[in-house]
Write a structure and sequence with these properties.
The complex is a heterodimer of chains A (116) and B (110).
Chain A: E1 5-7, E2 10-13, E3 19-24, E4 31-37, E5 43-50, E6 53-56, E7 65-68, E8 75-79, E9 88-95, E10 106-107, E11 111-115
Parallel strand pairs in A: 2-11
Antiparallel strand pairs in A: 1-3, 3-8, 4-5, 4-9, 5-6, 7-8, 9-10, 9-11
Chain B: E1 9-13, E2 18-23, E3 31-38, E4 45-50, E5 55-56, E6 61-64, E7 70-75, E8 84-92, E9 104-109
Parallel strand pairs in B: 1-9
Antiparallel strand pairs in B: 2-7, 3-4, 3-8, 5-6, 6-7, 8-9
The chains are: A mainly beta (116), B mainly beta (110).
């Protein structure tokens, strides 16, 4: 049973370019979460999506960041006009439908974004 | 979500049980206790969670005190591969996010 798949594992971009991070949830999971981990810090929640809907984006920076989870295909976290401060590990998690307090989130191994 | 307090680090002997404490004195009745761990450069790995009762699975046991103000994660036979940062997280029913603190850096020593 495949786990949460993220790609690419490593992504290098120059300042001003766009970064696209992909996440395929576990089979049967319809809820996707994105977290960011800055160097030497803990994970911080960014956004929670269900198919075709953003449910909670309270942790997303107001500008340059967007996320989607289309009806078909993986969830995408998009960062426009990247800056050095965007360098971090970005983790995706998924969970099945149901009462979310009682549903564990399962994480992928992340995308490590480096900005030159 | 209620705040949790963990020791910043601890050492455990290989082959022995590892008891990882967590305080969550402000926990509410509808908040679950979750445990994750993160091995260097990997994503967080779900270990176990519980509400009131003690829980056990193939990885660990979770002991929650009767007043629910603290809990202990028990790794029954620690191995070197259990070296990781362990996070105790309290999550309210219906809340989407997991609030990761600094965690407990556990090192299993041969």
């Amino acid at each position: 049973n495949a786990g949460v798949m993220q790609n690419p594992r490593h992504l290098v971009r120059r300042r001003g370019q766009e970064a696209r991070l992909r996440c395929s949830p576990m089979k049967g999971h319809s809820h996707v979460y994105w977290y960011r981990q800055l160097p030497e810090e803990g994970l911080k929640f960014m956004v929670y999506l269900q198919k075709e809907n953003i449910i909670d984006e309270s942790g997303m920076p107001k500008e340059r960041f967007s996320a989607e989870f289309p009806k078909e295909g993986p969830s995408i976290l998009r960062i426009q006009q990247v800056v050095r401060g965007d360098s971090a590990a970005y983790f995706c998690a998924s969970s099945p439908a149901g009462r979310q307090g009682n549903q564990p989130q399962h994480f992928g191994d992340g995308t490590r974004l480096s900005i030159l | 979500d209620a705040k949790t307090t963990q020791p910043p680090s601890m050492d455990c002997a290989e082959g022995r049980a590892a008891n990882l404490p967590c305080n969550h004195s402000t926990i509410s009745g509808n908040e679950y206790v979750y445990w994750y761990r993160q091995i260097h450069s990997q994503g967080p790995q779900y270990i176990i969670h519980g509400l009131k009762n003690n829980e056990t699975n193939e990885m660990a046991s979770l002991i929650i005190t009767e007043d629910r103000k603290s809990s202990t994660l028990i790794l029954p036979h620690a191995t070197l591969r259990d070296t990781a940062v362990y996070y105790c997280i309290v999550r309210v029913e219906g809340n989407n996010r997991l609030a990761f603190g600094k965690g407990n850096q556990v090192v299993v020593i041969p």
